[in-house]
Design a protein that fits this description.
Length: 343
């Protein structure tokens, strides 16, 4: 398949807009594009390759006309549109968490588990934007030694919540600087000049849904139900890019230089690691980049089989839109798009 027709559902959102930018940058071979959002946005125009395209509602008739539906709206929208899309012979690539843990839905980072695409049934999910950089680091290292346990603390940007949260952080920042008392709507507390150890609702076990996603999705993507992940997910007042402090325990010692050279050879990863010259990954550097930046690679002094590192990734690009486009590219290369290939 050399070119495709696509619908972008949630085109006006934080991920949707970045999707359009990346599709242009990569020359993703789109022969026809339909842009969809909620009723609020119908009639608005978005620019794609120099053309203003009107936003419309997603309908079954529209799904009939495209090869891919890229869904980056809400979980409820995904639950409605993704099965409908598959029913209409259109592959749904879904950014939400709605289908990630469904057995028949591959959860894919192409650099890690592209072969899982071969068994799709019309819906493919992308992982949570914090899981993606984590598995990109874990997978190549797992070939060197078995990974027993991972402790990860995330520092997640506000665009991980969507465009409204970014606006709220900007407004609150101005209000705080003007000496006013800002109101919080997107989060339970003010995010400007603050840090919230709380992303998504808490569960009985004391972890949040976001933290449990990092465990469950990692196990599914790595096909390893034994690897344990203990996450603390934290929202920070950063516009774009999620950072992660990762501690990995292997079944035997690994030298930090070996880690550096394994990860340095991985597509999609860039080593940024010269701490004595103040060189390490930072959100302002990762934002707008397609690569996962890895640095601060060192032996974990608390564990003879441990490695500690610091990873930063643009949550809107590799954490969402870029991963979705790479999945589509891989499916086109493997001839997995026509309905006859998956029905
Ligand atoms: N942000 C990230 O870093 C990230 C990373 C990975 C996955 N995701 C997932 O990607 C999805 C979108 O996230 P986002 O950050 O782009 O959110 P966002 O900025 O809030 O955008 C939401 C989009 O969904 C559209 N929408 C809302 N209700 C709709 C409906 N009933 N029908 C059709 N479209 C509707 C909105 O359209 P209107 O403009 O008309 O309201 C908007 O285009 C979420 O499922 C999120 O979990 C996000």
């Amino acid at each position: 398949m050399d070119s495709c027709k696509v619908a972008v559902i949630g085109a006006t959102g934080a991920v949707g807009r970045v999707f359009l930018q990346i599709a242009e940058e990569r020359n993703f071979p789109i022969e026809q594009i339909r842009l969809c959002a909620s009723e609020r946005s119908v009639g608005k125009k978005l620019n794609f390759r120099g053309q203003d395209i009107e936003v419309e509602l997603c309908t079954p008739a529209l799904l009939d006309e495209v090869d891919f539906s890229f869904i980056s709206a809400t979980g409820d929208v995904s639950r409605e549109i993704a099965p409908l899309s598959a029913k209409h012979g259109t592959v749904a690539i879904d950014d939400s968490s709605a289908f990630r843990m469904t057995d028949t839905v591959p959860l894919v980072v192409p650099e890690v588990n592209a072969d899982d695409l071969n068994n799709h049934k019309g819906i493919v999910a992308i992982p949570n934007c914090s899981t993606t950089p984590l598995v990109m680091v874990l997978k190549p290292l797992s070939r060197q030694a078995k990974i027993k346990r991972v402790v990860v603390d995330t520092f997640q940007s506000v665009t991980g919540t969507g465009s409204a949260a970014l606006e709220e952080m900007k407004t609150q920042s101005s209000e705080v600087l003007e000496g006013k008392n800002p109101k919080a709507k997107e989060y339970p507390h003010q995010i400007a000049f603050n840090v919230l150890p709380h992303i998504e609702p808490f569960q009985e076990n004391g972890y949040t849904n976001e933290e449990m996603k990092m465990l469950n999705e990692t196990q599914k993507i790595l096909h390893d139900s034994e690897v344990m992940v203990s996450a603390t997910c934290v929202r920070v007042p950063v516009a774009v890019s999620h950072s992660e402090a990762i501690h990995i325990e292997f079944d035997k010692p690994i030298d930090p230089n070996t880690v550096r050279s394994i990860l340095g050879e991985q597509p999609g990863i860039r080593i940024v690691d010269d701490p004595f010259s103040n060189v390490y990954p930072m959100p302002i550097e990762a934002a707008g980049s397609d690569e996962v930046l890895v640095g601060r690679i060192r032996r974990d002094i608390s564990n003879p089989n441990g490695i500690a590192l610091w990873v930063v990734c643009d949550n809107l690009r590799k954490g969402a839109a870029l991963n979705a486009i790479q999945i589509a590219e891989e499916m086109m290369r493997r001839d997995l798009v026509a309905q006859s290939s998956w029905r």
